[in-house]
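Notes from the 1:1 (GR / supervisor)

We went over the backlog. Supervisor wanted to see one worked example end to end before approving the batch request, so GR pasted a single chain during the call. The sequence is below; no edits were made to it. Supervisor asked that the structure be written out right there so they could see what the output format looks like.
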Amino acid sequence: MAWQVALVATFTMTVSYVDRQTLAVLAPSVTKALGISDQAYGWLGSAFSMAYLIGTPFAGWWIDRAGARRGLVASVFAWSAVAALHALVPGFAMLFVLRLALGITEGPGFPGAAQTVQRILPPGDRERGFGVLFTGSSFGAMVVPPFATLVYRHAGWRVAFLITAVAGLIWIPLWMALTRSKNVRAQLDAAPVTVAEPRPSLGEMLSHPIVIRALCAILAAAPIFGFSQIWGAKYLVRTFSLEQGDVGGYLFVPPLVFDAGAILFGDLASRQRRAEGVPARGLYAIGLALAMTLALLPMAETPWQAMAIMGIANAGGGALYTIATSDLLARMPVGALSFASGILACAQSAAYVVVMPLIGRAVDKLGSYDAVAITLGCWVLPGSLVWLLWRPPLKFVARTRATAVAT
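Structure output shown during the call:
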């Protein structure tokens, strides 16, 4: 039962990414129909991320108090409604507002799913569970390109937005049925705060070495995955002169390989932690090397070569995400798991807020994605080195209490 609940929580991330990624897949057609430039499209990517950045810490705080069982239902229903409204947009302004609304309503998704994995699975399975959790988001990013382009061919981009929004209505009854047992409710509903393990404040969380180290890792890796997610369709159309209806046959590759990287490295890291009790720094270093291969994208001469390079980089990104996230949550008090997960989601959004408009500006100015790919491939190195070399405390403790031994 524990793994069944964890898998449905993973499906939450699938639904989330289906709704947020539909615009990215249909971007060539939507931007042409509405007269939106590459730089303005970059701001649409930032709109979602800005809202997610602001809303997710509060969403994590709310999930820690309300519990994932009820909080996720409310969130999925709200963001599905917002996603469906994308079909009615008349221009850039309304689309920008809806991207903000989607970012706010999707805020509880990752914190709630991460809290579920941490609470429902035994300690020895949690890193493996986080590897599977990340496949939920990339699976959503994988299925949207072929599905949305199929609907586009037959009914246009507005209908594609409506149909993809239905995914949330499928998830809600499944989640409610699986979490109705007394045992599952006891594990997923809000846990009482104890004197021995109080919830830390936002300021204490953001300034703690454990959290700062994890933030460095996420800020480093986020643009690798974000580039293929948000810019993949436009990259293929500009670089290889593909049609909108053809991009779905290629864009499933990066998220598919991200899944493979997250599962493989999550499993290996879980085995290593059980055997040695320490973070998987060697595995993280391998993930870093893979992620940096995005800098080789200018060498691609065909769409399939480009997808292979993006896929290898995404496998590395999956490794970095999984190892950094599971390591952070293993060190956090139980009452702050969703809060901590929300902070990591904020880091990803912060990276998108800064990077996406810059990518659009660079492409408008330079006419290609070569410099962008090289820069992103190099960007992942400094923050990842911080994670590898820093030895934070073994457990999150208040500053007024004794510092734990570093590992």
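Supervisor's comment: The two ends are 33 Å apart (CA to CA).
Batch request approved.
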